[in-house]
């Protein structure tokens, strides 16, 4: 039976100094790769006429495209023609070809975009985006972080690898370095993230229990402690990177863990094992630590959200009269109502528990975000 003495188990609370924050900016600030040749991009467009179109409409579009900085060719559609955007590369030269449909009403359609002749400025902006980001365009605001399946799978594969070394006790800069991200997927601080790190140096060091987890979950957790999150993205050169920004930004971020792909009884059997428990006036952090030890399950606490919600984790005491219950049920009891727990797994499928202050509405929104990411991975 689990009994507690009123001993104190160290809680993972550390302060990040302003010196280390400066190092964080220096080490992760740019994330830029060196390049010997600057990439040049040419954009050409082709308009396919499926129906009869007034000749004057084709002439006007020719002038509009030229003002937008792209050459254009108008011709009758053939049997195998379709609207698409493709690109080819030769050395430092990238050629983007956009094939669209010239409609009877004079508008043009490129995949999911429609332009009318009065929207020359919008067309010019789209052409500019193609010149910067290539056929895929900018990744901002797009599902799956704007990555195609191959890119998303590549990112997921890299982030599913175990952390390089245990970051426990390390401050943010050192902890992120300990994760061991490869040069092919660097971490880049956005200007907003850099400013946040300069203004707020009261971040905690990495907790224990991270050594067996994957890179993606650990990086998301470490950044979360500083009020930051990350999202994969594409550079104008088509390379991949992890962009760090404040969690207050509207853009979706990589989640701290994913839904279990197996029921708890098979993925975390000790966590649902029924045991007798009894204790009185014991520190909540001690109970959480004991459950983690007994179940051999990492239990990670969202220290940042608890602090923002004015929940004094180190001062909370809990009681439990003699009763038989699962470890999972016990954790539910001692954290309710101020906290709640999620049963999750990392990118490699390793289960863990995340204790946080999220409301039901926040949990539902997070579930929707993760579902969208999983849909992208499955496509």
Nearest-angstrom radius of gyration?
Answer: 26 Å
Instruction: Provide the number of structural domains.
Output: 3
The residue fraction in helices comes out at 25-40%
Q: Strand percentage, roughly?
A: 15-25%
Poorly predicted residue ranges: 5-27, 29-36
Protein described:
It is a single chain. The chain is of the alpha/beta class and 379 residues long. It has 3 domains: 18-36 and 142-255, no CATH class; 40-136, Rossmann fold; 264-365, Phage tail protein beta-alpha-beta fold. The chain has helices spanning 18-28, 55-67, 120-133, 149-159, 172-179, 191-199, 215-224, 264-267, 284-295, 303-308, 327-335, 360-378; strands at residues 40-49, 71-76, 84-90, 93-102, 108-110, 113-115, 187-189, 228-234, 240-246, 258-259, 274-283, 299-301, 317-326, 340-345, 351-356. Helix 9 packs antiparallel against helix 11 (327-335).
Quick rundown:
The protein has 379 residues and is of the alpha/beta class. Helix content is 33%, strand content 25%.
How are the SSEs ordered, and which strands pair?
Blueprint: H1 18-28, E1 40-49, H2 55-67, E2 71-76, E3 84-90, E4 93-102, E5 108-110, E6 113-115, H3 120-133, H4 149-159, H5 172-179, E7 187-189, H6 191-199, H7 215-224, E8 228-234, E9 240-246, E10 258-259, H8 264-267, E11 274-283, H9 284-295, E12 299-301, H10 303-308, E13 317-326, H11 327-335, E14 340-345, E15 351-356, H12 360-378
Parallel strand pairs: 1-2, 1-4, 7-9, 12-15
Antiparallel strand pairs: 3-4, 4-5, 5-6, 8-9, 10-14, 11-13, 14-15
Helix pairs in contact: 5-7, 9-11
